[in-house]
Specification:
Four copies of one chain form a homotetramer.
Chain A: E1 5-6, E2 11-15, E3 22-28, H1 42-48, E4 65-67, E5 71-72, E6 75-76, E7 81-86, H2 108-115, H3 131-148, E8 154-162, E9 165-166, H4 190-202, E10 209-216, H5 230-239, E11 244-249, H6 260-263, E12 267-270, E13 273-276, E14 284-285, E15 288-289, E16 294-300, E17 310-313, E18 319-322, H7 336-359
Chain lengths: 361, 361, 361, 361
Amino acid sequence: MAGNTFGHLLRLTTWGESHGPAIGGVVDGVPPLIPLGEADIQPWLDRRRPGQSRFTTQRQEPDRVRILSGTFEGKTTGTPIALQIDNVDARSKDYSDIMDRFRPGHADYTYWVKYGIRDYRGGGRSSARETAMRVAGGAVARKVLDHLVPGGVRIRGALIQVGSLRIDRKRWDWDEVARNPFFAPDAGIVERWSSYLDGVRKAGSSCGAVIEMVAENVPAGLGQPVFDKLDGDIARAMMSITAVKGVEIGAGFGAAELSGETNADEMRMKDGKMTFLGNNAGGVLGGISSGQDIVVRFAVKPTSSILSPRRTVTIDGRDTEIVTKGRHDPCVGIRAVPVGEAMLALVLADHLLRQRAQCGP
Amino acid sequence: MAGNTFGHLLRLTTWGESHGPAIGGVVDGVPPLIPLGEADIQPWLDRRRPGQSRFTTQRQEPDRVRILSGTFEGKTTGTPIALQIDNVDARSKDYSDIMDRFRPGHADYTYWVKYGIRDYRGGGRSSARETAMRVAGGAVARKVLDHLVPGGVRIRGALIQVGSLRIDRKRWDWDEVARNPFFAPDAGIVERWSSYLDGVRKAGSSCGAVIEMVAENVPAGLGQPVFDKLDGDIARAMMSITAVKGVEIGAGFGAAELSGETNADEMRMKDGKMTFLGNNAGGVLGGISSGQDIVVRFAVKPTSSILSPRRTVTIDGRDTEIVTKGRHDPCVGIRAVPVGEAMLALVLADHLLRQRAQCGP
Amino acid sequence: MAGNTFGHLLRLTTWGESHGPAIGGVVDGVPPLIPLGEADIQPWLDRRRPGQSRFTTQRQEPDRVRILSGTFEGKTTGTPIALQIDNVDARSKDYSDIMDRFRPGHADYTYWVKYGIRDYRGGGRSSARETAMRVAGGAVARKVLDHLVPGGVRIRGALIQVGSLRIDRKRWDWDEVARNPFFAPDAGIVERWSSYLDGVRKAGSSCGAVIEMVAENVPAGLGQPVFDKLDGDIARAMMSITAVKGVEIGAGFGAAELSGETNADEMRMKDGKMTFLGNNAGGVLGGISSGQDIVVRFAVKPTSSILSPRRTVTIDGRDTEIVTKGRHDPCVGIRAVPVGEAMLALVLADHLLRQRAQCGP
Amino acid sequence: MAGNTFGHLLRLTTWGESHGPAIGGVVDGVPPLIPLGEADIQPWLDRRRPGQSRFTTQRQEPDRVRILSGTFEGKTTGTPIALQIDNVDARSKDYSDIMDRFRPGHADYTYWVKYGIRDYRGGGRSSARETAMRVAGGAVARKVLDHLVPGGVRIRGALIQVGSLRIDRKRWDWDEVARNPFFAPDAGIVERWSSYLDGVRKAGSSCGAVIEMVAENVPAGLGQPVFDKLDGDIARAMMSITAVKGVEIGAGFGAAELSGETNADEMRMKDGKMTFLGNNAGGVLGGISSGQDIVVRFAVKPTSSILSPRRTVTIDGRDTEIVTKGRHDPCVGIRAVPVGEAMLALVLADHLLRQRAQCGP
């Protein structure tokens, strides 16, 4: 209820601050007998890990995950899986210039108003560091999906826009995503993004981004009518990621400009199977998965931690300015790619169990 | 869990099909001693009621709400409030042309795959008729907000785009909204939308729309960090409305194109109060309300029920075509305005109670 | 959260006061394609119905249930099932002698302190009338159990003690339960209870009772370790029934006096199947069903509505006396039998769906 | 949903097995600004710690708790509080004699049937070791209660029966509880229990017990009508403790034998305050606290881990016998006292927040 648990049947509860001794998570509701070890989780964390290129924060965190419970002899037991990552590079520094004032665009102010107290070291719980546990939990969710869905579920994300520079969708190649530091599916954009981001970084500024994710081989029938629509839960999951300001499914906002004839994906039998002739729906109709690819996009705002002096106020109500030094991502959208994938995996695995509960296997 | 309940502390559970005897809802968790009668709810339902102009469905439903429990001598008692609306104009008709085949872009197919059974009369539970109870529940949520927040919370919505025709934001006038059948805040767009929609309607087609909502005087501090962010819950609430495909908060997708300097709303003291110098955040920072206006937009796809013949398949797997006759909204986005407002009210009232629980009054 | 919803995957939400126009319930999460009509529910309500003998309240309520949603052509559709019963015999009477003072042992005082308002007509929401919807919801749960468990699940209850008069367990005959107005499984006790209760009734007094319930053919594996133990949820379900003050499973409080050797039910193979050589566990080990009969007992206190004058206080703090006239059950424990069965059915059906979600069919 | 989280607004999620590296818990929903350190939790754990007398298990666990998140400069921040205890004395031993067969009366069999896998080392998740985290979480709940309720809430438990040996209630002295290894409130029973338990221990047997708990200064108004009654949630909380088989409130099962006149606690004004003239209700009327002492009793069965050979079956279906060596409590009921107190604290603190949410401070 206080909002640190995600999901209904597959549940991830996370804890920990940016500058505490560790961060952790508990995954409850995992079906038993699924092979699971740390090696199933670590690679996903490595993709999100900071300090891997000059375009992300230079904080050095190995983000080494440990499983502390819930498995026995290499398999899940159906009991809660505790995951933990020690904080290693939480530098002791002088916070006097930010502890008494609020960073514009940051959660500093709202945490203060809500709780009357905040852990100003590194943002505490509002730090993007919190998303590491989402990625770890998402890795467990992927195992659940792969265990229960014949053929497995493939969830992939890519960066499709940085600032106002968009990829060319015609050159989309999933294989490219792993070959550049941006998760870009278009090799042609990499150099332009590099030079743009170098400029942003040198200016001590930051920029936004748009991510697109696709989940393939999702069974039809996931999701609930009315309030717990699959796309509703996806929207909430994405919007819950730090700095996300917009979410859309399939044709998304563009659907508003289509005619009924163009928008509705027609249907035809093909090799004895029902198929759709388009995917404006993004794989969800009436809140329930249709068996098509789930297609989701979300927008990430520019980081609020920038070097330019900004006007702000102090906690005791005086006008002042603030400059946020330290090691920050010039474009948090980049590292949001693995986080978005993880959240999508968590939503799908939860709904898979919910569907199995009500409608059977 | 099966998805017909919304909210945690203020909860709306709805039931009923388009062509059953009635639709209803139960609002649980309402604080006691709030004056509440049917007259507090009916006006909001009247705004959503079909058949009020030639631009919405011609089904005639008085949508007369009754309160069956939870109040005593004109005040809430803290016990569940049951709301009910009889279905009056559910015409008996011949469904043979739709009962054995799926409307493209409609939930027909996914309900069938999920449940193996569907109430094909009028769409059953996937009908937009279901949203009437959201409006009724939202009316109760407004009363809760007004009772607990000094000065009350004002939640208003407007249609800002129909097809590709956008309003001129410079001419925004909230008073206009009640004066035209589109909830348009720009008097200058009304004639253009009228003639455009007449064309859509005569062609038996449909079109999409974009709605914007603003909540004023929302206390700072609502929302939970991490998974239950206020904007996450708002996104889910909007995406759960029939036909919605995208949601954004504040600058939304546009934030991706802003620089860190431009995007972050600076802060200054004014008359002894902290104020923001912009509202790209849309009133939410780090998932918690900042005290600024909450600004939300969502996109509605064109109705899938259209007169043009579309390619589809039958439930026993044959290719065929379908034409959807009957009384449908050419632009469901219009009547989505009061529905969006209601969902926003439900989210805010729920978070207000959650905040009161954890952090006190 | 406000406590009018029961269950996680199979959920019953109830509403309505003793003296309002109707009472109702919504059952959400029911699997689709289960044959269900009003005739499946009415017989269970008839067992609980008041006015069937001189030993229960003389209020005449036909308790005719209507299904308002969630079924189509005689089968469940997977969408919420709305149930409704009109209040027929809510006599208009003079409440002036109870509206300003509290009945000792009744919820009058605590509702008043909690909410600052109460519907004093017939007890409002704290009336035993509320349990009718539990019975209706329990009837739906029975259908779910019978649909999903091969051979069905049999849930039966019996009255085993009235005041201090206990049945003779050696004469237990389930067939007797339907033959007397007490749900007594021992024909030999009926006359003694009749004459004892006649005395209680004539004295304007009331008495307590103990109920025992047995669920047969419950699959092994239901329940969750740690907090959501099956017996924990059963205990909560029973204790949530009006006037219940104690619950026990299997040997119950008696287990405290057994040695480890006597208490633990030994195991042996029999015809290739594992069997237990006793059932002190009452069918639950470590919070999980063992496949044995689930055996539950609960104690019901005497009704607080009695004719003898009792010392009490008024809402404005004056000492006074109170006499509760009206039509009351001298022994509410009798009608608690079908209510207990219904709650047990709801718990078991919910856990059956939960087990299917996590561990599969 | 998988049952490792307790509570709605104040939530405890626990994880960890008896023989894993550690056990842990996350407490979410704690109000901010409450002073909290490890020293507030450790003393409660010390009371439950094994190996403190010859009457409990000889496993040596310092049970040293660490707080890993959720506090800043000695105060709660409103974010999740992670608690952790390393397992120190989980002896490596030969499990070959129990890994392939089931202990009668133990959760071995039901875990196996439910999950198809079990951590047989020390019982895994079904071990009483799991209750340590309940005590730690309960310590946090006590801080919440003391912070929010003027004068604080006092929750105390005592052992009132071992085997069939009951205390003399007339000699009840709370000060005695800390002076003997049994939490006995009656000094006169200590020697009898000692010699009885020595006999049980030497015989390799075990015995049951009954615990009574009293919560003082609980505000009136806590609890929800209908399904979430305060006593219902207490009953579930107690029944969820390992080995508990029965729960009762106030007069409990004894209420069945009382007349309406005797049972109902009369009311009188005293010094301008409403008072009850008895407490058969145990502090709860209609599911809502009355302001009187909350009085709860629960029965603990004898441990199933005993030295006498018992008939059982193997996992592959052969008849055999089993003897459970190792370090076990001859009477788990003793150490259940601090666990019961902790669970009562968790229920009360959760309902306090729920009440504040709906009805205000």
